[in-house]
Amino acid sequence: MADIHTLPYNGTTPAGGDSLTQDLNVYYESGDIAWMLAATALVLFMVPGVGFFYSGLARRKSALSLIWVTLMAVGVTSFQWFFWGYSLAFSHSAGKFIGDLSNIGFRNVLAAPSVTSERIPDLLFAVYQGMFASITVALAVGAVAERGRMLPCVIFMFIWSTIIYDAIACWTWNPAGWVSQMGGIDFAGGTPVHISSGSAALAYSLMLGKRRGHGTHELNFRPHNVTQIIIGTVFLWVGWFGFNAGSALSANMRAVMAAVNTNVAASVGGVTWCLLDYRLERKWSAVGFCSGVVAGLVAITPGSGFVPPWAAVIFGAIAGSSCNYATKVKFYLGIDDALDIFAVHGIGGFVGNMLTGLFAADYVAHLDGFTTIPGGGISGHWMQLAYQLADSVSGFAYSFGGTCLILFLINLMPGLGLRATEEAEIIGMDDAEIGEFAYDFVEFTRDVVNGGDMLDDESKFSADRDSPTPNEKAFSSTVGDDPHRSR
């Protein structure tokens, strides 16, 4: 079969040429474009995975609100990305910290080679990276679980993606960025996606305060729908192939290596977490396995296109164990991170960054035919660990501090208080903020209060204190003690 060769790019206009007089397709391989379009769809597929995962972990009365907020993150962030986000992160004339507005509204974003790879055009790179921005915001806003209002959260999405995400993406991935120029390596988003979202979720949880009843029997519950958690995990696992392998920005052997590493690390992470839970409780936890899978996926993200497959086993094992133990950090900090977002994404991203600095291999990076790196610590380039540490710490500090400041200012604005009322927490965010329900919770509650048959014992209110609502004590006395506990 004859080889297919593209022509060298020779456009002179910022948009890459005039489609009325030129065939702009001749500069790119159709296979690369097809793969990157598929990878874009796979990353978008991860967003409902996040929603289902978060929703299953929460109580049923706030289940729909978490799916809603993750999908809304796509809508808000996609517009922000089109409007100026892409330009701020990936403009060809960017500075070391953030880009300019030369590509505002996708101006001149068409057929010129992308800023990070000549294998795909700007427009394709823009839509692909827009999905990264969207899922990062979706991961972070899970922190509103069970007590955060939706309107301030939507405003936060736009501001946070502009000030925090776009800056970190620019300094990490844009060739002009300070981390990129320093020599830091991050294949698919250890810092821009996971450390930034994990630290933002920790900050959001801090600024919101603890949920009503935190530390008491009232919040001692298990995830309300483990099946949803499993479905969300499957969506994430499948989508992560587009997330990591797609970051090769071409259909090549480096993408294949990233796909292999992704699956190995996820598998080992799931088994590791499950075994650690079994050691304590002698039960094979499905939630534990799913949490470990996500931890393994998070950790391998920065290294998937830099490390060999045997190292992916180490990534999965260390991520599964470190993120498992990191779920205790919120108790030491006194912060109600309801869904353990910081433990899995913040700690997992940091672990992945450091392991990438240790195990990065020059021959793996060069599988795409052009990327050259000196390698990681085991290759004798120990300075890489310092680069990775600087990248990780700066990403955490900037995201955590910036998120706290953004939320503090939003909370000062009339009508934009971050926290829902106590009554809203009692009835649940689905009823108070969405007006729709993942389950028919309102009629279910009405039946229980009226003495009907109880179908489930989730989301019950404590009977050991004065009730702020008339029917709460009747509801609690009807259902009895809640035997559930947190995972």
How does the helix and strand content classify structurally?
A: mainly alpha
Q: What is the alpha-carbon Rg in Å? A: 23 Å
The span between the termini is: 56 Å
Low-confidence stretches: 452-487
Helix count, DSSP H or I runs of 4 or more residues: 18
- Helix/strand order, N-terminal first: HHHHHHHHHHHHHHHHHH
In one word, what is the shape? globular
Write a concise keyword list for the protein shown above.
disordered C terminus; mainly alpha; single chain; globular; 18 helices; about 475 residues
Describe the protein's architecture and organization.
With 487 residues, this protein is mostly helical. Helix content is 60%, strand content 0%. It contains 18 helices and no strands. It has helices spanning 30-57, 63-90, 122-140, 150-173, 178-182, 190-208, 226-244, 253-281, 286-300, 309-326, 329-333, 341-359, 362-365, 383-412, 422-427, 429-434, 441-449, 472-479. Helix 1 packs antiparallel against helix 2 and helix 9 packs across helix 10. The protein is globular, with a radius of gyration of 23 Å. The N and C termini lie far apart (56 Å). Mean pLDDT is 90; it is low at 452-487.
List the helices and strands and how they pair.
Blueprint lengths: L29 H28 L5 H28 L31 H19 L9 H24 L4 H5 L7 H19 L17 H19 L8 H29 L4 H15 L8 H18 L2 H5 L7 H19 L2 H4 L17 H30 L9 H6 L1 H6 L6 H9 L22 H8 L8
Helix pairs in contact: 1-2, 1-3, 1-7, 2-3, 2-4, 3-6, 4-6, 4-14, 6-12, 6-14, 7-8, 7-9, 8-9, 8-10, 9-10, 9-12, 10-12, 12-14
